[in-house]
Amino acid sequence: MLRLEKRPEPSRAWVALSPLLAVALTMIVGGALFSMLGANPFEAIRTIFWDPIFSPQFSGFTRPQLLVKAGPLILIAIGLSIGFRAGIWNIGAEGQYIMGAICGAGAGLALYPSESPLIFPLMLLFGALGGWAWAMIPALLKTKLGTNEILVSLMLVYVAETILASAASGFLRNPDGMGFPGSRNFKEWGNVHNGELIANTGLHWGVVAAFIAVIGAYVLFSRHIQGFNIRLTGDAPRAARFSGVNPTRIVLFCLGMSGALAGMAGLFEVAGPAGQITIDFNAGYGFTAIIVAFLGRLNPIGILLAGLLMALTYIGGELAQLMLGVPGAAIQLFQGMLLFFLLATDVFSNYRLRLAKKEVA
Amino acid sequence: MDLSSISPILLVASIMVSATPIMLAAIGELVVEKSGTLNLGVEGMMITGAVVGFAAAVNTTSPLVGFAAAAGAGALLSLVFAILTQYLLSNQVATGLGLTLAGLGLSALLGKPYEGIKSPTLPKLDLGPLSDIPGLGTMFFKHDIMVYLSILLVIAVWAFLKYTRAGLILRAVGESHDSAHALGYKVVRVRMLAILFGGACAGLGGAYLSLVRVPQWTEGMTAGAGWIALAIVVFASWRPWRIMVGAYLFGGITVLQLNLQAAGVKVPVALLSASPYLVTILVLVIISARGAHGAPASLGRSFHASN
């Protein structure tokens, strides 16, 4: 009989290896899934993981998309990872992302049609504030009353979605839009549009912010006392208390940080690639970012790589949909599978397989 | 605005119907959590149950086959969670979230060919003289079989947990898995069974949505019902009877806000549509402010015999 034996210390090799193993397993099982859907599995895997970057036919269009899609995923996932490290489960990033976009876009649109270069920074500030404020609801309820932050933050996603619906068709609707739902388009608003900084790279301010967030989180966790306190709170809450860490401040910091980053991601998206507030401009990044955070082992560098990989599956998925007729939903399942395999292979970081000897009962 | 268009008799009748899916999912999750496992994948299992149940019912023209298939699908999906958390000791929060995300993707994939079709639905039972009572008959005694089954299930779970030896073992495992293990109970096996039961219940709840409550398949149709079921377990302080209260309360709010929207009340539609979620938050706040929890002590902790 095989049995698991706890390792005295987590295996560093497995911590790094398990995401790779998970990707490989997902490719195998995903390939089987695609062949059941009637596509050639090898072609499907190549279309998803290889063609978006290397195909001469598509890469001109798809390569810039990599950064466009990875930017928000990384930005949100970095914020989430800070909380997850402390055992604070903010799973409502999607709601904070939407509220950031609405607040930021609203602040900008109030000043339309001014072309001042200060408008975009102002919108960014309001975007971060919107996401932060939305995350403060579960944070304050948790610290004041001990309410479960998982359920509250998730419920607020649905509330944010109804607010988004009424924003798109009501208070933020384009007055010149002949009654169609959707706000003014930021792409037609010169200075305010969050466009590409270098042509054909997909690099916009949101991607720059994502890179800064990666560096910031790296410094936070490796050099700053607050990062140490966060990790301590997650690993040993009692020990953290005894060493004088204030749990309330940790909760407020973690949720506030992840909310603000998600809100900024929403603003970058709405002022850039999406262009306008519409009822469905949010592409579920807030939820996919949870997978990104775990896939990156809650480590900033890991999240950077995981975000790029996840962006690749988005783009490759669209390409596979177009070229091979694979349903779009298959990609969502594919991403979910990736998380499962990661969680499954993760066991070997903390445990090892041993052949069990006969035990005395 | 015309509130007189809302008939109280029909209102109560539709509350019974709209409470059923969350009641089924919540009573299943209650058993799972009583065994000390937190499965956040209820939404994913529910929506998978919804699509599988719908597909099976359309293909066999039998809604009962649909419900059976939905229960099977929910249990099968929960098996993934069970193996990951019980044998591979993965983090329960992360695995549950993954289950929800995967379930949403899986259901969208499976459901594509079934969009816009009507399914065979359950017939209303005729309970003889009971159904003929004016008013009360329409309110309580003219429903389909699942409405009554869900109530019976709550009663059965209550009796199981309170009066049977197996129920006692399940609670022991949830309160202190180390003590239960030391007494010789199979912690992992008990939890596996509880998780499968919870998955089957969530599947049934989902199928009730797609086969009776709506009755159609649309992508993402559970719209947070699974999460509300999780909140109801907290609301109920892990007691079966209160699950019933919670489910009817939320069913009531859902139906009432739909009726108010239809009646054209001068309240923003966004506020009405958000009301079930806002009330969920409010209820969670009240419950946590009161400080009475009653959560199983081992809830969410992984068990490994070496610990």
TrEMBL record, chain A:
CDD domains: TM_PBP1_transp_TpRbsC_like
GO cellular component: plasma membrane
Pfam families from the UniProt entry: BPD_transp_2 (PF02653)
Tree of life domain: Bacteria
Coiled-coil intervals, chain numbering: none
Transmembrane segments: 12-34, 66-84, 96-112, 118-141, 150-172, 202-221, 250-268, 329-348
Compartments it resides in: Cell membrane
InterPro entries: ABC_transp_permease
Keyword hit for Nucleotide-binding: no
Topology within the bilayer: Multi-pass membrane protein
Record's keyword terms, sorted: Cell membrane, Membrane, Transmembrane, Transmembrane helix
Principal subcellular localisation of the protein: membrane
Keyword Cytoplasm attached: no
GO MF entries: transmembrane transporter activity
PANTHER family in the cross-refs: ABC TRANSPORTER, PERMEASE PROTEIN, GUANOSINE ABC TRANSPORTER PERMEASE PROTEIN NUPP
Designated name of the protein: Beta-methylgalactoside transporter inner membrane component
Species this protein is from: Pelagimonas phthalicica
UniProtKB/TrEMBL annotation, chain B:
Domain of life: Bacteria
CDD domains: TM_PBP1_transp_TpRbsC_like (cd06580)
Annotated compartments: Cell membrane
Membrane topology (UniProt): Multi-pass membrane protein
Transmembrane segments: 6-28, 40-58, 64-84, 96-114, 145-161, 193-214, 220-238, 245-263, 269-289
Organism lineage string: Bacteria, Pseudomonadati, Pseudomonadota, Alphaproteobacteria, Rhodobacterales
Record's keyword terms, sorted: Cell membrane, Membrane, Transmembrane, Transmembrane helix
UniProt-recorded name of the protein: Branched-chain amino acid transport system / permease component
One GO term describing the cellular component: plasma membrane
Pfam families cross-referenced by the UniProt entry: BPD_transp_2
InterPro entries: ABC_transp_permease
GO molecular function terms attached to this record: transmembrane transporter activity
